[in-house]
Amino acid sequence: MIISGIRTFSSSFVRSQSRARFVVSNPRKPSLFELIRPTNEPTTSLDVPSGAINLSIDTFRNENGQPWSLPIVREVEKQLALDENLDHDYLDPQVGLKSFIEYSTHLLLGQHLGNALRENVVAVQTVSATGALRLGLEFAVKVLGLNEAHLANPSWSDYGVILQNSGISKIKDYPYWDYENKRLAFDGMIKTLRYAEPGSIVLLQCGHNPTGVDPDPAQWRRLAEVIKDQDLVPFFDVTNIGLSSGDPQEDAAPVRLFAELGIELFVAQSFSKNFGLYSERVGNLLVLSTEPSKTREIKEYLVQLSKGLWSSAPLHGARIVGHILKTQYLRAQWLNQVRMMFMRTQKSRNDFYKALMDHKTPGHWDHIIQSTGLYCLLGLSEPQRNYILRKHNIFISPSGRINVCAITNDNLGQIVHAVDDSVRNH
């Protein structure tokens, strides 16, 4: 009952010196990911040469490679704009927009399980999943006294920064990807976590970034058993719900499994990708405690911590999401459009894979169609990626990840030719 074991904490303040206050006297300590990142590659999409095909993008794109605003989102925006009863006042500083929190939590847990665990759940609106991660981790450090976290190798590069800035002092990784065989390194994952320090946070993803590969149902159950036996604290990052399988219910199944097994947990929930509301920063932090008597206290601490991060969460995007999720006919349209997004990613994967097979490109490429969602860890080496950038003007992220939505009918041939060329010559 780690989450329920709350202790008091106090803020400390550092007295500023009277001069040279903003002079950095010591170099910033590089993050774990900066230490392992190749130094001679572009590090972000901002470094990509003008005119290059950018396969590192982090957002959904339509068949023409353009951002896609969901039609149902546009429709609801128009409805809300005409509602004269709505205003732009601050949200409830205690939690956020209550209708949004209620229905986003039901989306995650399902109505039946959500109702059954109502007294055990605390949910707070956040600034997307990044804000939820930061708030949950600060709570874990400052209130629960936790200081160690384990994250998958490879992982989303921002995790290291968020963990460090939240006060986590020990950051370790666990094997996730078998680079040689291009598949989940499940045995190594289990072996590592079985010996993790009790009380350690384990960062998990539903819709893994960057590999696009998640454990199967049996593996999720085995992982849950190890985490429960070892008294670890799972922290789910759920940013692509619906885009891994086309069905939000299926994508949320791992979280529900852990909850049904009575495991205390955190969940960071985002609606950037599955609603196309990237810049609206719509998020939710869910904390599941085994002690219902502690939830009020947990909520009070979360509210106190959130005041130092964003004070009041953004309203516009949350209002859109909440309205769609609570209205049956709108929700049905949204589910259909999520399915369309999923089908777009799968078609892109299949087209890419088939083109590589038609070219008889050396190597094993089955992992392209075995992974799902937006991302795929292509498996090219650093020299191969640099060669593709220099000769073919195509940028692949330093991790080797591509977003399959960046592949279109217009650029597919160029991308396949570049990959084939790099594999044969490097």
TrEMBL record:
Protein name: aspartate transaminase
Subunit architecture: Homodimer.
GO terms under biological process: aspartate biosynthetic process
Species of provenance: Bursaphelenchus okinawaensis
Domain Aminotransferase class I/classII large per the UniProt entry, residue ranges: 53-418
Cofactor(s) needed for function: pyridoxal 5'-phosphate
Enzyme Commission designation: 2.6.1.1
Superkingdom of the source species: Eukaryota
Keywords: Aminotransferase, Pyridoxal phosphate, Transferase
GO MF, any single term: pyridoxal phosphate binding
Keyword Oxidoreductase assigned: no
UniProt cross-references to InterPro entries, sorted A to Z: Aminotransferase_I/II_large, Asp_trans, PyrdxlP-dep_Trfase, PyrdxlP-dep_Trfase_major, PyrdxlP-dep_Trfase_small
Protein family per UniProt: Belongs to the class-I pyridoxal-phosphate-dependent aminotransferase family.
GO CC annotation: cytosol
Keyword match GTP-binding: no
PANTHER family xref list: ASPARTATE AMINOTRANSFERASE, GLUTAMATE OXALOACETATE TRANSAMINASE 1, ISOFORM B
